[in-house]
tRNA-specific 2-thiouridylase MnmA (Jiangella alkaliphila), 364 residues
Amino acid sequence: MRVLAAMSGGVDSAVAAARLVEAGHDVTGVHLALSANPQSFRTGARGCCTIEDSRDARRAADVLGIPFYVWDLAERFRADVVEDFVAEYAAGRTPNPCLRCNEKIKFAAVLDRALALGFDAVGTGHYARVLDGPRGRELHRAADPEKDQSYVLGVLTATQLEHALFPLGDTVKADVRDEAERRGLAVARKPDSHDICFIADGDTAGFLRDRLGSEPGEVVDTAGAVVGTHDGTYGFTIGQRKGLRIGTPAADGKPRYVLDISPVDRRVTVGPREALAVDAVTGVAPRWCGAPPPASSRLSCLAQFRAHGTPVEAVATVSDAGVVDVAFAAPQQGVAPGQAIVLYDGARVVGSATIDTTGSAVSA
């Protein structure tokens, strides 16, 4: 097959590309330039979009003896990922930009272009597995649970899975680094990227403040009493405990957590930990990793609402209006609108949706 290998400049994508070459595919490497003003070096930059990263990717391609190109997708990334991220926080929601990047960039913009250029598939260094099932290709968890990235790939459709290759799905990270050394790849011990790639210094609140400005408001308790002030609701997430700027301690002396964010009246509500409990969520814009379930069907499944969260038993009900209602077997905490909820049947990813509303198990 002709395979386009997405090479970020890290060890995972380099070894993935090497395995694709070793498997006999006709491989071309591509680095995605996603930042209009990339950091020159990784010192002080925590993502995967630096100039140094593009050079590391090119050096790896040279070692593998494959053609290499840089695709400038900065404008597409800004519109589909960065602006969406800012808009979601401005609306009081908690987005996951990695899912949006996989959906809109790596497996939409890149895959579409690759197919148009005559490639058969796109290969990446994600830790996940694509297996042949009774009804076509299926997305499954990786063999290494510590590195499993099936959650952030839960937005992929059946058609996209037909053209996706994840060579690292059966491998643990330590073995990947050892393999990179054996292959003579200079990125073998390069640190992993972390946090949000387009926020170089990791200061999410500062990044949002620069774009949304100061929008001062009140921090209130569940009775509506003002207990503090803030500079913008975008600086808070559901379940947050630290940095609340509360001047009045709780009557019981216990910590308080963010329970609700209301950008319209610039109000953040805080309360006890137990008030975070959620029984159910309603998800919108579902994406199915295979054939969509029949409307009005009920699925016993495992639900996960964080990239490395613990899956919980749940029942999902699919409506014919593009809505998925998910009821948890036990109350969960820290669930926020804007997060993705990914549904599993064992290790297989059934699909995902964006959380629109939550149902509290405990009345605040």
Notes: Residues 216-275 form a domain with the SH3 type barrels. fold (CATH 2.30.30).
